[in-house]
Automatic annotation (TrEMBL):
<dbReference type="GO" id="GO:0008483">
    <property type="term" value="F:transaminase activity"/>
</dbReference>
<dbReference type="GO" id="GO:0046656">
    <property type="term" value="P:folic acid biosynthetic process"/>
</dbReference>
<comment type="similarity">
    <text>Belongs to the class-IV pyridoxal-phosphate-dependent aminotransferase family.</text>
</comment>
<keyword id="KW-0663">Pyridoxal phosphate</keyword>
<keyword id="KW-0289">Folate biosynthesis</keyword>
<dbReference type="Pfam" id="PF01063">
    <property type="entry name" value="Aminotran_4"/>
</dbReference>
<dbReference type="InterPro" id="IPR001544">
    <property type="entry name" value="Aminotrans_IV"/>
</dbReference>
<dbReference type="GO" id="GO:0008696">
    <property type="term" value="F:4-amino-4-deoxychorismate lyase activity"/>
</dbReference>
<protein>
    <recommendedName>
        <fullName>Aminodeoxychorismate lyase</fullName>
        <ecNumber>4.1.3.38</ecNumber>
    </recommendedName>
</protein>
<dbReference type="GO" id="GO:0005829">
    <property type="term" value="C:cytosol"/>
</dbReference>
<dbReference type="GO" id="GO:0008652">
    <property type="term" value="P:amino acid biosynthetic process"/>
</dbReference>
<keyword id="KW-0808">Transferase</keyword>
<comment type="function">
    <text>Involved in the biosynthesis of p-aminobenzoate (PABA), a precursor of tetrahydrofolate. Converts 4-amino-4-deoxychorismate into 4-aminobenzoate (PABA) and pyruvate.</text>
</comment>
<dbReference type="InterPro" id="IPR043132">
    <property type="entry name" value="BCAT-like_C"/>
</dbReference>
<keyword id="KW-0032">Aminotransferase</keyword>
<dbReference type="InterPro" id="IPR050571">
    <property type="entry name" value="Class-IV_PLP-Dep_Aminotrnsfr"/>
</dbReference>
<comment type="pathway">
    <text>Cofactor biosynthesis; tetrahydrofolate biosynthesis; 4-aminobenzoate from chorismate: step 2/2.</text>
</comment>
Length: 289
């Protein structure tokens, strides 16, 4: 059976219920976060918590759960579902009130939900994937991890219909991000990605990959880049917490360079995998058999 942490209690997923007047249900008035857990250890936990707390601040929802409490919730969920690797999903809405009104009453009690689901960290080589270029029709505060994801979902469905794993979104020819990922290109050994402004979600994986690149002597530029630059790039890849680094070989049917996984992408994939939390070896004490 699957379990959910809902407003302070662990309940079977099938019994988890919220009000029909929850503002998340009525208005998508809420935010979310996704944290990968490798061998029981949340990866880049503080960075994920910082982004979660910032999203809450930006939409003026009070922070309902402290970082320390989140770690306890993870442990409680683990006790019900002992997964080696997992994805923690956190969903927070402004709360419920009747009657429906766009303007929220002050001091609503946020609705908080968390789940753990199985996660298989990528291993081995990954075949370069297809992406589909499309216009970014989303709102202008993509830096907030809002649960209002209709624009992302429409783009994902269109990409799937095109045989792609992800849309590659642009605004007036400027590449923004994917529907649930950030994009990078490599040109003349320089790693380039869109700046962390309001047009993209500041991906935790994006930030980690930038740090790994700098540490490994790869030049990095965080700056707007165009669709023309994308098509002229030597390499292209996307990043996300659950997919890590995925090489992109084709965008809307057009090869990026020779369509293969390039050397810098390959190097960063290796660095990333080496940086993932490893299983903690249990030390046997002398008096243990
Ligand atoms: N952009 C968007 C729109 C996303 O939904 C995600 C995934 N949450 C990302 C980028 C990648 O972010 P992260 O590396 O933190 O998973």
């Amino acid at each position: 059976m699957s379990y959910v942490w809902l407003n302070g209690a662990i309940v079977p997923a099938t019994e988890a219920k919220i009000s029909a007047f929850d503002r998340g249900f009525l208005f998508a008035d809420g935010i979310y976060e996704v944290v990968p857990i490798y061998s029981g250890q949340p990866f880049l936990f503080d960075a994920h918590m910082e982004r979660l707390e910032r999203s809450l601040r930006e939409v003026e929802i009070p922070q309902p759960v402290s970082r320390a409490h989140w770690l306890e919730i993870i442990a409680q969920l683990h006790a019900h579902a002992p997964l080696e690797h997992a994805v923690l999903y956190i969903h927070i809405t402004r709360g419920a009130e009747f009657p429906r009104n766009h303007l929220p009453s002050p001091n609503l009690q946020p609705t908080v939900m968390a789940t753990l689901s199985a996660f298989t960290p990528p291993v081995g080589s990954i075949a370069p994937a297809r992406a589909t270029l499309m216009e970014d029709i989303r709102w202008l505060r993509c830096d907030i991890k809002s649960i209002s994801l209709l624009g992302n979902i429409m783009a994902k469905m269109a990409a799937q219909q095109d045989g792609s794993i992800e849309p590659l979104l642009h605004r007036a020819g400027r590449v923004t991000e994917g529907a649930s990922s950030n994009y990078f290109i490599v040109k003349d050994d320089v790693l380039i990605t869109a700046p962390a402004d309001t047009l993209i979600l500041p991906g935790i994986t994006r930030d980690w990959v930038l740090k790994l690149a700098k540490k490994n002597g790869i030049s990095v530029e965080e700056r707007p880049f165009s669709v023309a630059e994308l098509y002229a790039a030597d390499e292209c890849f996307l990043t996300s917490s659950t997919r890590e680094i995925v090489p992109i070989g084709t965008v809307s049917g057009q090869l990026i360079n020779d369509g293969q996984c390039g050397p810098i992408t390959e190097k960063l994939m290796t660095c990333f995998r080496n940086s993932r939390p490893k299983a903690v070896k249990k030390v046997k004490h002398e008096n243990q058999i």
